[in-house]
Design goal:
CATH topology of the largest domain: Methylamine Dehydrogenase, Chain H
Helix content: under 10%
Oligomer: single chain
Largest sheet: 5 strands, mixed
CATH architecture of the largest domain: 7 Propeller
Shape: globular
Keywords: Signal
Protein name: DUF5074 domain-containing protein
Number of domains: 2
CATH superfamily of the largest domain: YVTN repeat-like/Quinoprotein amine dehydrogenase
Organism: Flavivirga aquimarina
Number of helices: 3
Distance between the termini: 11 Å
Length: about 450
């Protein structure tokens, strides 16, 4: 893969060097001055600085600017991976364009679930729950090709992995929530060799006599931060009146340290996606999942939905009270970091809850959260559930891409201008089929 990219770059430079700046026209016609045009492989109006032509007339598929930092040098139709549930069945497909046109899922992609997946350096790693394996696919000109698999059920019989994370340090971290003894299953996979570096159970310590009910870890340098929620394991009551993160050394998963914030209460682990993320400068932010509907009782009524920050290994005094921006009780269901201190979050308003148990029926409002200015802006995007989005990793050229699936209605990928305000978006590719709910969206190259 890397050799092919270097070869393409070398060829582009070679042909550019041979290009003729002035073309003599026949007869008395004036000399034509050629220009350099840049390939726009994803139809976003931005050109690839590494793929050029020098001609008098603008070629089809080329533009005059070289502003695209992400036009694929990878295999054909492999820039993005879209995983979706269609009428209760799972599919995933690769494509080079999510900004326009139609993305056909059924019959064109791969049958199976790619909701628990990550894309790293030309490979898609997918937790296959049906087979009990971690599958490794390579992006090729012929599509995704399965290269290898690791049996995850053999690692920890009777357990499964709910989360998969690219740590950014050459391995994958697989994990799940803890059992009644506080033991949470984990596995560390070395990406270079695709072998198991370590696996077992990590014990999440009790706090004030209460159990860790749910955890989800984020690796930063040589530490891992487990967002959590604490209470009575059997009943999910007696929720601890604070936000708690458990920090361990990584990858040894030793030396647990309890971090506590009194800014609010509820779950900092997230549900489908991670409730903890890190920004470009290494700071860690969390949002908390609160709602009397979620926990089945009302001890969290009146507790605010907030963003908190972990800096230099512990909570600091940063608090962004999202609830203060609304006149009714709200909860954040999902939130995704888009870069430059901007977060996009799906907010469940109390008035929009019909039947909490059927999450696809309840509609959410998408908001833009500026962590630096502590402002919350509602986007005028159609309300949707945003419920089953496990992994959303699709940012390029100042754009954030988000699937919007309306139950019983249309489904699109929306292109959002990062920090663009209430109307800073446009409708992108159409997702065909009935009830298409995208659960993973990756930019691969």
């Amino acid at each position: 893969m890397k050799t092919n990219k270097l070869l393409k770059r070398a060829l582009n430079c070679f042909f550019l060097a041979l290009s003729i700046t002035f073309v003599a026209c026949s007869g008395d016609e004036p000399t034509c001055e050629s220009s350099i045009w840049y390939a726009d492989t994803d139809n976003d109006g931005l050109g690839d600085p590494n793929s050029t032509l020098s001609t008098c007339e603008q070629p089809e598929g080329y533009v005059s600017n070289s502003d695209d930092d992400s036009d694929a040098l990878g295999p054909l139709n492999s820039k993005f991976t879209v995983g979706a549930a269609v009428d209760g069945e799972g599919y995933f497909v690769t494509t080079d364009n999510i900004s326009s046109g139609t993305i056909s899922i059924v019959g064109n992609g791969y049958e199976g679930w790619a909701n628990l997946s990550v894309s790293v350096e030309g490979f898609l790693y997918n937790l296959n729950g049906d087979e009990g394996t971690l599958d490794k696919y390579e992006f090729t000109d012929s599509g995704l090709v399965k290269r290898d698999a690791i049996s995850t059920t053999a690692l920890l019989p009777g357990s499964f992995f709910r989360y998969i994370q690219d740590t950014g340090s050459g391995d994958l971290f697989l994990s799940n929530f803890p059992n009644e003894d506080g033991d949470a299953p984990y596995a560390i996979i070395d990406l270079e060799t695709f072998t198991v570096e370590g696996h077992g159970l990590v014990n999440i310590p009790d706090v004030n006599g209460k159990d860790a009910l749910w955890v989800n870890g984020l690796v930063k340098d040589n530490e891992i931060y487990f967002g959590s929620v604490y209470g009575d394991w059997a009943t999910w009551t007696q929720i601890e009146d604070s936000l708690i993160t458990v920090k361990f050394d990584y990858p040894s998963l030793t030396n647990p340290e309890i971090l506590v914030s009194t800014a609010s209460t509820g779950q900092t682990a997230g549900y489908r996606n991670n409730g903890t993320f890190k920004t470009e400068n290494g700071d860690i932010y969390q949002y908390n999942l609160t709602s009397s509907h979620w926990y089945g009782h009302d001890e969290l009524v009146g507790k605010p939905t907030v963003f908190t920050r972990i800096k230099d290994g512990d909570y600091d005094d940063y608090v962004l009270d999202v609830s203060a921006s609304f006149s009714e009780p709200i909860a954040i269901w999902n939130a995704w970091y888009a870069g430059n201190d901007i977060v996009y979050a799906s907010v469940v308003k109390e008035a929009d809850i019909t039947v909490w148990g059927d999450l696809k029926i309840n509609t959410n409002t998408l908001v833009e959260v500026n962590l630096a200015t502590k402002t919350v802006t509602e986007l005028n995007i159609p309300k949707a559930s945003y419920v089953d989005i496990f992994n959303l990793n699709c940012v390029e050229n100042g754009k954030f891409y988000l699937p919007v699936s309306i139950s019983g209605g249309e489904a699109n990928i929306y292109q959002i201008d990062i920090n663009g305000g209430a109307n800073g978006f446009q409708k992108g590719a159409v997702l065909d089929g009935s009830n298409v709910f995208v659960n993973s969206l990756h930019r691969n190259f």
